[in-house]
């Protein structure tokens, strides 16, 4: 713990230094220090880490080594998806932070969210949109692994666009959090490979615990932060939370059209692009940043996931309504294929 405390003190000093050297914005490091008791802060850190571990184990249980190998042999779809994930979303976060003139800690929060890999919600949304589930799972896997190098690099590059933020990003804490995602994900893959009968149990239990823990954190935050939650509900932050996933879905789909992907792949890439790993983002903001620096802004991922989910559900609703009255060619082809197999078998 002494090493962690020394690191946090170093980060607080670096962040204060960056502010003192002309960084604009309304954030003031140290202004939230009195809101977090040591016991409450440690409790929330533990819950956040537990949520991350459980989520990543559950995600690992959806991955199959055979299917992963198939997409590695034909990496075009995955390559496009990774380009969309680490190209579109970080650039979107950077542009929104600039256009809305976010303060320094707000800008870092948004950039971290934009540079995160794909989340497991994208798999659920891709399934609801009748996407390519193998591609969805492999995309999530690849972006999670590649994030270990891509995320710190992207944060370093984009922080150059904000005066004084070059030394304010806790790269060590972020890398530690990324490693923490790979270990439980590997455990989940191992469970699915050697004991597949337990996979569904782990997945269902994981999402149940995730839901309960999210409610617990929400209650604890409301008690701890009180009126300062308005910072996360400011018009600029709400605008970012609304626009980021929407732009991700739109540009991800557009990119897949440009690269001539089929319908299921287009929908999958759109969901994978717009959906971020919110659990990882929360863990980084809560654990890597001292509470007096991040303040209530570690709640930004919760605001983001509300808009991310609502917009995805709206798109799913539109998709289902459209295909109810206009069955797609791929569905007709699939139906004829099944009918042909039935006739040949009888």
Automatic annotation (TrEMBL):
InterPro entries: BilAc:Na_symport/Acr3, Bilac:Na_transpt, Na+/solute_symporter_sf. As a major transporter of conjugated bile salts from plasma into the hepatocyte, it plays a key role in the enterohepatic circulation of bile salts necessary for the solubilization and absorption of dietary fat and fat-soluble vitamins. It is strictly dependent on the extracellular presence of sodium. It exhibits broad substrate specificity and transports various bile acids, such as taurocholate, cholate, as well as non-bile acid organic compounds, such as estrone sulfate. GO terms for cellular component: plasma membrane. It is found in: Cell membrane. It comes from Hemibagrus wyckioides. GO terms for molecular function: bile acid:sodium symporter activity. Keywords: Cell membrane, Glycoprotein, Ion transport, Lipid transport, Membrane, Sodium, Sodium transport, Symport, Transmembrane, Transmembrane helix, Transport. This is Hepatic sodium/bile acid cotransporter. It is a multi-pass membrane protein. Belongs to the bile acid:sodium symporter (BASS) (TC 2.A.28) family. It catalyses: tauroursodeoxycholate(out) + 2 Na(+)(out) = tauroursodeoxycholate(in) + 2 Na(+)(in); taurohyodeoxycholate(out) + 2 Na(+)(out) = taurohyodeoxycholate(in) + 2 Na(+)(in); taurocholate(out) + 2 Na(+)(out) = taurocholate(in) + 2 Na(+)(in); estrone 3-sulfate(out) + 2 Na(+)(out) = estrone 3-sulfate(in) + 2 Na(+)(in). It comes from the Eukaryota. Its main location: membrane. The lineage of its organism: Eukaryota, Metazoa, Chordata, Craniata, Vertebrata. The chain crosses the membrane at residues 47-66, 78-101, 107-129, 136-158, 170-195, 207-231, 237-257, 301-322.
């Amino acid at each position: 713990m002494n090493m962690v405390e020394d690191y946090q003190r170093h980060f607080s000093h670096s962040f204060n230094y960056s502010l003192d050297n002309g960084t604009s914005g309304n954030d003031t490091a140290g202004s939230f220090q009195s809101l977090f008791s040591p016991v409450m802060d440690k409790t929330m850190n533990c819950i956040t880490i537990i949520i991350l571990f459980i989520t990543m184990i559950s995600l690992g249980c959806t991955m199959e080594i055979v299917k992963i190998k198939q997409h590695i042999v034909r990496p075009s779809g995955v390559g496009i998806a990774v380009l969309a994930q680490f190209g579109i979303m970080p650039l979107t976060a950077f542009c929104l932070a600039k256009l809305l003139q976010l303060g320094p800690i707000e800008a870092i929060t948004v950039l971290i969210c934009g540079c995160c890999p794909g989340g497991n919600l994208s798999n659920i949304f891709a399934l609801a949109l009748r996407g390519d589930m193998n591609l969805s799972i492999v995309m999530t896997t690849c972006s999670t692994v590649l994030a270990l190098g891509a995320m710190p690099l992207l944060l370093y590059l984009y922080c150059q666009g904000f005066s004084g933020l070059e030394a304010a990003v806790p790269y060590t804490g972020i890398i530690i959090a990324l490693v923490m995602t790979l270990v439980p994900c590997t455990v989940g893959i191992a469970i699915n490979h050697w004991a597949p009968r337990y996979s569904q149990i782990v997945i269902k239990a994981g999402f149940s615990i995730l839901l309960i823990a999210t409610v617990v954190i929400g209650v604890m935050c409301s008690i701890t932060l009180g009126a300062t939650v308005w910072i996360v509900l400011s018009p600029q932050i709400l605008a970012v939370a609304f626009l980021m996933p929407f732009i991700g879905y739109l540009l991800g789909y557009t990119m897949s059209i440009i690269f001539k992907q089929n319908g299921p792949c287009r929908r999958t890439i759109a969901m994978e692009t717009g959906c971020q790993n919110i659990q990882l983002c929360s863990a980084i903001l809560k654990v890597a940043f001292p509470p007096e620096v991040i303040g209530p802004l570690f709640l930004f991922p919760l605001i983001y996931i509300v808009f991310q989910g609502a917009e995805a559900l709206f798109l799913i609703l539109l998709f289902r309504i459209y295909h109810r009255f206009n069955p797609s060619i791929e569905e007709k082809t699939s139906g004829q294929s099944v009918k042909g197999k039935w006739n040949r078998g009888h």
